[in-house]
Design a protein that fits this description.
single chain, alpha/beta, Rossmann fold, eight-stranded mixed beta sheet, 10 helices, 28% helix, globular
């Protein structure tokens, strides 16, 4: 199945309804995740990345509502339309088994007054799996991520930050899901623990415990270490999709260029050039700009950018961009 689509999103729209207003957090998003690939979703805070993660697993509760689009996943060789499931159905059929999420602030995701083994037993009950078998599997998985099986008898507050992060990975991957979504998983970790986390994540992928990974972050330097493809989001929309090599060598969208130029990395040419900030601020998603949402901050804008919205078009094989500089 390698190289085939594992997950497809088509024109997905998910807004937050705040009184009479809609916050257009995910607005017409389309992309696919292939089997056996690691995809980084990158963008500024507030661009819709974390909302997108919740929408993919149908973890949708008011004020968030799904207004349109389609999410389809390949399950046992058959297309399953995830977007047709309600939250409880998705929880039963998808969560943990097909898709798992390492949430933001994962170190605080575990109830501090519950021992880790209890979490394992609760997972077994919710999926009607033999508890003892799953606890036995958890002991093995804990060892695989560098934790002693004795940690299962501890409370989360008895573990260090890095240990808690690895415990979350172990628990999230217990049912060998096809897709793992990591939402800003390294933001609260120091550099050493970031490297440990990435190493553990990729080790589980190499072992076939998980098939594909979506790594959501604002940190380009981190995602470039593990991803094969990058998706750039801005103001609820995707503006560019390309392989890591292509996007690092030659970013096409003005926002992608600005994003890369605002990050200091070790390459000699970056040190020589220095860093530059993107002017202005991200738009209010209750009332985003007409046309291209980036045009108020764009140094290359044309008159059409203020009137019409550019489509995400394929400009090279496997490379898409939403910009009128490329016929969008």
């Amino acid at each position: 199945m390698k190289g085939k689509a594992l997950l497809k999103l088509e024109n997905v729209k998910a807004y937050y309804k705040i009184e009479k207003n809609y916050v257009k957090a995910v607005d017409g998003v389309s992309f696919e995740i292939l089997d056996d690939e690691v995809v980084g979703i990158v963008g500024e805070s507030g661009c819709g990345k974390s909302t997108l993660a919740n929408v993919i697993i149908m973890n949708i509760m008011r004020p968030l509502i799904l207004l349109g689009g389609k999410i389809v996943m390949k399950v046992n060789g058959i297309d399953m339309e995830i977007s047709s499931l309600d939250r409880e159905e998705a929880k039963r059929k998808i969560w943990g088994k097909e898709i798992t999420v390492i949430p933001q602030s994962a170190m605080n995701a575990l109830m501090p007054t519950i021992k880790l083994e209890r979490f394992i037993r609760d997972i077994a009950k919710s999926h009607e799996i033999d508890e003892e078998e799953l606890v036995k599997k958890a002991k093995t998985r804990f060892k695989e991520v560098g934790l002693d099986e004795e940690c299962l008898n501890r409370y989360p507050f008895e573990l260090s930050g890095g240990m808690k992060q690895r415990a979350v990975i172990a628990i999230a991957s217990l049912l060998n899901p096809q897709l793992l979504i990591a939402d800003e998983p390294t933001s609260a970790l120091d550099v050493v623990n970031q490297k440990v986390f990435l190493k553990v994540l990729m080790q589980l992928k190499r072992q076939g415990v998980i098939r594909s990974i979506i790594f959501i972050t604002h940190d380009i330097a981190t995602v470039r270490q593990i991803a094969t493809k990058m998706i750039i989001m801005y103001a609820g929309k995707i503006v560019e999709i390309a392989s890591i090599e292509d996007i690092l060598k030659n970013p096409l969208h003005p926002y992608t260029k600005g994003l890369f130029n605002s990050v200091l990395t070790p390459e000699p040419e970056i040190k020589e050039r220095g860093i530059t900030a993107i002017p202005g601020a991200p738009p209010n998603l209750i009332d985003p700009p007409k046309g291209c949402r980036f045009h108020p901050r764009c140094p290359y804008k044309k008159s059409i950018c203020e009137k019409e919205e550019p489509k995400l078009i394929e400009v090279e094989p496997g490379r898409k961009v939403a910009c009128f500089l490329y016929g969008g």
